[in-house]
Design goal:
It is found in: Cytoplasm. With about 425 residues, this protein is of the alpha+beta class. The protein is about 40% helix and about 20% strand. The chain binds one RNA strand of 94 nucleotides through helix 1, helix 3 and helix 4.
Length: about 425
RNA sequence: GGAGGCGUCGCCUAGUCCGGUCUAUGGCGCCGCACUGCUAAUGCGGUUUGGGCUUUACCGUCCAUCGAGGGUUCAAAUCCCUCCGCCUCCGCCA
């Protein structure tokens, strides 16, 4: 959530942000009026309550008729206090409900527009010219099947569409990727964390995933728990309701978890292979830092993502997303998109968001320094989303016979092997 | 799944049975000041968090906050209910 003080002082800035997101601008005035009512009814409650407390102190000392009349007066006051309290709570709830619907303030440098209006910041590496090499590249599923690495048929048989098995070198490849990613993160000072993958509504809502994207989230009604779509959720909620001494910041965590996504509304998109699936594993970077540090930290997260993709020797581009494509929490977001040869385009592999104080306010996470306590800033960034990384690796590093070259950085985690080769007898 | 115990403002803790200056006790830690060759010790003061008002600083003041939410009452840390968390035991189980 945003700072109510900012809303009162500079409502135009909030209106402009809502407009850039393509969201409801009217929320701003509704919230201003609810906040005004919350404050005025709160003041009335405070005054009545102060009077009630004073009166209450007199009662035990009073005797006889005096006591009777005091009790009668106190009874009236008690009713008035209760009414004022109810009124205040209603106004507060209304204000809170509206506040939770406001998106984060869009960063001034974020391009304005929708999904199509992203800006390409840079391109790193060069896509291979398969025509010049004299062969037509196989797509990742064909390669995965040749290698005995990916089995989507049985995934569909057992769990439905968009599920898969990773087998043999596929399974080993995932473990190597995860280990290599954790190794990079650890070297950079991150604390590795294995997180709970089922979380309570407060964690989900606090992270900003129960708004427009709620349909994309798996929910277990019997237990009132959500399956996380990313370890960002349990990592953000890790310090929920805490006050962290500023001297301990930044706190950098590298989470590893499965990610569950319903992919509602993506029917027919990326149906082949494992590019878009209901469940995948991911190494995620998550940082708690001082608000003044957030922008610099965002650049660092992006740099770590670039380092990772470069170490995998993948050609990729960095884009900055437009205001309408940020999601509720982010003020600014960069994606790294790897080249997918058989699609002839760059596709998202990682994403890093500066959520400023937005999540921290919802999750009640503050920092304490000489100035006092205030919400800190949180940021997140993908290090390795396993399935999409496998897609990019297989397709970009394939050889004419269907084997796949292993980039140097992964070899130590694959028993030193530098080549994945087709199995003599596929798993079918 | 069953039975029981516990949850107090950083940590420990008094208070809860029997509702009323609890405006929450004391210790430790921490901050400030004083004293002191230095350090230590000692003394005094301060030290939960949030909201409102005061000009959105300072100062001041009021209200809320004893795991969370509701209820009873003129009045709730204290009585009742629901929930959450932790611990112990029994059962089941990877």
């Amino acid at each position: 959530m945003i700072d109510l003080r900012l809303l009162r002082e500079d409502p135009d800035r909030v209106r402009a942000s809502q407009r850039a997101r393509g969201e409801d601008v009217g929320l701003v005035d509704a919230l201003l009026s609810a906040d005004e009512r919350r404050r005025s009814s709160g003041t009335r409650f405070d005054e009545l309550r102060a009077e009630q407390k004073q009166l209450g102190r007199l009662i035990p000392k009073a005797q006889g008729e005096e006591k009777t009349s005091l009790l009668a007066r106190a009874k009236e006051l008690a009713d008035a206090v209760k009414a004022a309290d109810t009124e205040q709570q209603q106004a507060a709830e209304e204000a809170q409900e509206l506040l939770l619907r406001l998106g984060n303030i869009v960063h001034p440098d974020a391009p304005v527009g929708g999904e199509e209006d992203f800006v390409v910041l840079e391109q790193i590496g060069t896509p291979r010219d398969f025509a010049a090499e004299g062969f037509t590249p196989r797509d990742h599923l064909e390669l995965g099947e040749l290698l005995g690495a990916i089995d989507t048929d049985r995934g569909a048989k057992v769990s439905g569409s968009r599920f898969y098995y990773l087998t043999g070198v596929g399974a080993l490849l995932e473990l190597a990727l995860v280990n290599a990613a954790i190794a990079q993160a650890t070297a950079a000072g991150f604390t590795p964390v294995l997180t709970p993958n089922l979380v309570r509504p407060a964690a989900m809502a606090g992270t900003g995933y129960l708004g427009q994207v709620e349909d994309d989230v798996y929910y277990l009604e019997k237990d009132d728990l959500y399956l996380v779509g990313t370890s960002e959720v349990p990592l953000a909620a890790y310090h929920m309701d805490e006050i962290i001494d500023a001297s301990r910041l930044p706190l950098r965590y590298a989470g590893f978890s499965a990610c569950y996504r319903r992919e509602a509304g993506s029917y027919g998109k990326d149906t082949r292979g494992i590019f878009r699936v209901h469940q995948f594993d991911k190494v995620e970077m998550f940082v708690y830092t001082a608000p003044e540090e957030a922008e610099a930290e965002h650049q660092r997260l992006l740099a770590w993502e670039k380092q990772w993709l470069s170490s995998l020797e993948l050609p990729f581009q960095v884009i900055e997303l437009a205001s309408g494509d940020l999601g509720a929490s982010a003020s600014r977001k960069f994606d790294c998109e790897a080249w997918v040869p058989t699609q002839g385009k760059y596709r998202e592999l990682t994403s890093t968001s500066n959520t400023t104080q937005f999540q921290a306010r919802r999750l009640n996470i503050r920092q304490r320094d000489e100035q006092g306590t205030r919400p800190l800033a949180t940021l997140n960034g993908t290090l390795c989303a396993v399935t999409r990384t496998i897609v990019a690796l297989l397709e970009n590093h394939q050889l004419p016979d269907g084997s796949v070259r292993v980039p140097e950085v992964l070899r130590p985690f694959l028993g030193g092997r530098d080549l994945l080769e087709p199995t003599a007898a596929p798993a079918k």
